[in-house]
Design a protein that fits this description.
The chain has six helices and twelve strands. By secondary structure, it is α+β, with helices and mostly antiparallel strands. The protein has two domains: about 5-145, Pnp Oxidase, Chain A (Roll), CATH 2.30.110.10; about 155-205, Alpha-Beta Plaits (2-Layer Sandwich). The structure holds flavin mononucleotide and iron/sulfur cluster (2 copies).
């Protein structure tokens, strides 16, 4: 899926996310925030200017969020996304209300919406993690020019082909290719077992 599709998935399939910000003491704070809209320019949510959540967003200009779809762990897809936010004001409020009509129940009158303001998450990177698949499936994505850093475990040329790593891999996601181990990145749990047992120090973590 493209980054835009992942953002759409957050809005349409997860919607209520757990969002983390940092307070004035540098400590993390989480709260539940609905992701109400996405387009080619980012992800949009709203809050009220009186909330301490608003203050934390303005102070740091950064948010991290996670959400999941699925009833139990083995049926679950989780998506996380973190990046830069900016306040874009009330201009997009009508769009957000139109797409999320339940908001008319929470803020029923025009006057009661005066304190509301919209934020745009315009640049960031994220991760998709699907526990419903066997082996698990994961992917990473970036948006708005953020770097999509390749993270995880990788086998270097020092591999001697002993296969020790394969016997400890919980997802059986290590293949042999030309006598060397290759990790299927989209199935890897990042547990680190392979790096621990490798006699050649050939598995590195990025
Ligand atoms: C399902 C659900 C969705 C919520 N969505 C939002 C939201 O989109 N924007 C918002 O400002 N607060 C939302 N809230 C309320 C916040 O979670 C709550 O105001 C937040 O904890 C306040 O944080 P603060 O006291 O640190 O400002 C939602 C609460 C629930 C239960
Ligand atoms: S990190 Fe864990 S899941 Fe990934 S390849 Fe190594 S052993 Fe397998
Ligand atoms: S344990 Fe290390 S040396 Fe052996 S196959 Fe795996 S990566 Fe290669």
């Amino acid at each position: 899926m493209t980054a835009e599709n992942y953002l759409k998935y957050i809005v349409e399939q997860i919607h209520s996310t757990v969002a983390a910000t940092v307070d004035e003491d540098g400590l993390p704070v989480t709260c539940v925030i609905d992701m109400m809209y996405s387009d080619e320019n980012g992800l949009y949510f709203l809050t009220a200017r009186g909330k301490s959540f608003y203050k934390r967003l303005k102070d740091k200009g950064f948010i991290a969020l996670s959400g999941k779809k699925g009833e139990d762990t083995m049926n679950c897809v989780a998506v996380s996304f973190r990046g830069k936010v900016k306040e874009i004001g009330s201009g997009m409020l009508p769009v957000l209300f139109e797409k999320n009509p339940y908001m008319y129940e929470i803020y029923p009158t025009e006057d009661s919406r005066k304190a509301l303001t919209v934020f745009q998450l315009y640049e960031g990177s994220g991760e998709w993690f699907d526990l419903s698949k066997k082996p698990i499936e994961r992917d990473s994505f970036s948006f708005g020019g953020a770097e999509n850093k390749a993270s995880g475990y990788f086998v270097t040329d020092s591999c001697i082909g002993c296969c020790d790593c394969r016997s400890v891999c919980p997802q059986s996601c290590i293949d042999m290719n030309g006598g060397k181990a290759v990790i299927r990145q989209h199935n890897c749990l990042h547990c680190g077992n392979c790096a621990e047992v490798c006699p050649a120090g050939a598995v590195i973590v990025r």
